[in-house]
Amino acid sequence: MGKKTAKKSVKRARKWVYFFGAEKADGKATMKNLLGGKGANLAEMVSLGIPVPPGFTITTEVCTEFYQNRQREPQRLKAQLSKSIAKTEKIMGKKFGDSMDPLLLSVRSGARASMPGMMETVLNVGLTTKTIPGLIKKTDNPRFVYDAYRRLMMMYSDVVMEKAAGIEPKTEHDGIRHKLEAEIELVKKKKRYKNDTDLTADDLKKLCGTFKVIIKKTLGKPFPDDHDKQLWGGISAVFSSWMGKRAIAYRKIEKLPDDWGTAVNVQAMVFGNTGEDSATGVAFTRNPATGENAFFGEWLTNAQGEDVVAGIRTAYPLNIHTKTRDTKHLPSLEQMWPKLYKQLDRIQNKLERHYKDMQDIEFTIEGKRLWMLQTRVGKRNGQSAIRMAVEMAKSGLINRQTAIMRVNPNQLDELLHPSVDPAEEKKATELAKGLPAGPGGALGRVVLTADDAEAWAKKGETVILVRNETSPEDVHGMHAAEAILTSKGGMTSHAALVARGWGKCCIVGCSALHIDLKKKVININGKKIKQGDYITLNGSKGRVYEGKLKLTPADPEHNKWYKELMTWADQFRTLNVRTNAESPSDAKAALKFGAEGIGLCRTEHMFFEADRITAVRQMILSDNLAGREKAISKLLPMQKGDFKGIFKAMAGLPVTIRLLDPPLHEFLPHTDKDLRALAKSMRVPFDKLKARNEALHEFNPMLGHRGCRLGVTYPELYAMQARAIMEAACELKKKGVKVYPEIMIPLVSHVNELKDMREVVLDVAREVQKKYKIKVSFTVGTMIELPRACITADEIAEYADFYSFGTNDLTQTTYGLSRDDSGRFLPYYVEHGLLKEDPFVSIDQEGVGELMKMAVKKGRSVKGDMKMGICGEHGGEPKSVVFCHDIGLDYVSCSPFRVPIARFAAAQAALR
Ligand code: PEP
Ligand code: MG
Predict the structure, then answer these.
(1) How confident is residue 118, by pLDDT bands cut at 50, 70 and 90?
(2) What does the alpha-carbon distance between residue 729 and residue 737 come to, in Å, rounded to a whole number?
(3) Which residues, in sequence order, are bridge partners of residue 867?
(4) What pLDDT, on the 0 to 100 scale, is given for residue 836?
(5) If you measure from the C-alpha of residue 808 to the centroid of ligand 2, how many angstroms do you get, rounded to a whole number?
(6) Residue 871 above 90 pLDDT?
(7) Atom 10 of ligand 1, residue of closest alpha carbon
(8) How far apart are CA 52 and CA 267, in angstroms?
(9) Active site residues
(10) Which of 42, 266, 721, 759 has the most CB atoms at less than 10 Å from its CB?
(11) How high is the pLDDT of residue 3?
């Protein structure tokens, strides 16, 4: 019994309503969980002495109670609410429901995190047949009053009487809002008006009468003519909207929990539309498009907030800074009402200094009196985020650490690649959607084969190569193309890897494309795009558009804010950042981006050039050692030349070279014509070669004869590569060039594989150093890219100087999910929430990540200081970089264009 009473009294003492007004507020900015973002900031502004219409916030806890209590508000709410209304009335000098000088209220939702457009608002609450005459008398503006009344009826019937009541109109046209809007259009048409503003007081009065009839007829209930009923209806509707279909769907996408609940903000109405001495506007404390530290905004006289945003009337520039060529003739607040502008300017300065971040604010001027309606952290693009962060840190508003944390690493992409103009993108016709494999924007003419891509590019055309999937044979066309689009493949498919390596825009797994190579046409959802037609890609979003959209070029070299921020990031990070590169030019590009070594040189990428492929094919297709050795000896000088180029470019920085990895058949001719030519060059009968070619076919090449299995079965192959590496290193060292090779064995699953391959490499290394009479520092390590390697990482560590996690294969083999086929179904998994993210994009920390942790622990239990890194595609993805920092890796390695992103993410990892 005692216990029960205690519980009850706790409940009674609970504060449901937080008042704000006249420089005093019960809440503050830090109380977002209880008051929602909007309510907490309103309270904070009031405490700062900023003019805010008084009002109160009903807490998110009431929302929770509402749902626990069969959608009814808690008992004690009424009493607390009445007190707050009385305080509001006192400050405003008006009474809610009064017939002479009525106070009107707004009712707005406000969750912890902003959920734009998802929840509800009802304005002008308190207009009834009793209060209307008084308000007309008071304002001497019947047009304004009836306009406010019809807006209230539209919002209330839609939000409270239809949506919150769970009434589902059969079609959009049956919805009450649509019916009322249609009625306005009818009057306008009859009277030949162009704009809503042409409606007279009389028109609006009549409309209000018609609205009442339509509402009753459509929803079966009259529009409430009682101020209290309206207020409670509004409050309940906001709570109900938390569980509305749209809000639930939005939370699912944004991963916001359902049990947060929303707060309700009830506030005295102030009007920007009472006449020519009233106005309303939205502004940013800094320019959100450029980041410039200049007050920026738009306003309109005699208007309500939605008029500024909706674009019904051309908004005026707020000040001289905001004027453009098109708006320079329009009046600015700065020029028209300088005193009010100065007050607003002081407030915006105060808000930014207080919140230490760019604010997005809303204000209303009623009868030349300024009121602030909202402040929140403003959204910004990548360029401006960087500029603002750096300038704020330099002015001492924030420190460098905060500046780094303010920028999302992915936003750097906007600077590193050309991007599609967002305004044009909004208007463009979307043809199809795919996986965003290579960021940035590109536009060009469609070509359907690699040869055409190369030929057209030679003629000076900018082309986009469109294929079902790409193979190493397409590489010349991929290189010539501006961007690559494929109908198949996942985020680590061939096309994705190659495009990313070159920083090219790329979309893969775009399954709506049906390519007809014979007719040279692509069918996309019934539309035909011919070879030669222009398309535009947004590789950051995976969107394909018809025609040419405007692109903004990338220019990081000339962006002083970006350069400065990156130097700060480097001071804080502890993780090294390397690059994946296989040519001196890629290596040099990566050095410019700040790479500190090569973490993966995929030697197979060096074998596809025309002068080498024949020797490679001869090697593979020889059925005896002598034949193989003959072919291999042709490859040796070429490989040596490659390594020299790379070592020179990297000037003593570590270079990890991986010995041959992919299944051999990838190098083989696909047509009889090519096979015949090869047979001739090898002096073997065509049929014999064809039979051998067929014998090499594998059902599951990704899990077949690849990786170190090639070296185990053809040791002469790995020996040749080791020789090329060591001879290149010795020759350069003799000339005084610093070199540091790290030789890496791929796809090890059992320690014995590594043990054998290490011996092969060490034997060659000993012999070469003896021959050149010089010692070179080098190491031999392995990729950890199979689950068995993770589980036995302690055994493997005995024979490895370093580990490099190949998270592409590790993800593929942990999930048992082909990386080249995942594009067909993984997007579905992500869209339907089965997986939070594509595991080929961001490390699956609970699965693959656990295996990595195990391997780090086991490896270091044998060799405490073993160098460990990652060279899978995840090495350039911000969340994965943070994970690698957390599990104690020494470096991440990624494609050159992602190096800055990885450096930045590494700094954030160290600063959290
Ligand atoms: C990996 O598997 O993560 C890796 C880097 O190797 P590849 O992508 O070449 O298989
Ligand atoms: Mg691999």
Answers:
(1) low
(2) 9
(3) 802
(4) 87
(5) 6
(6) yes
(7) 809
(8) 9
(9) 494, 871
(10) 42
(11) 44
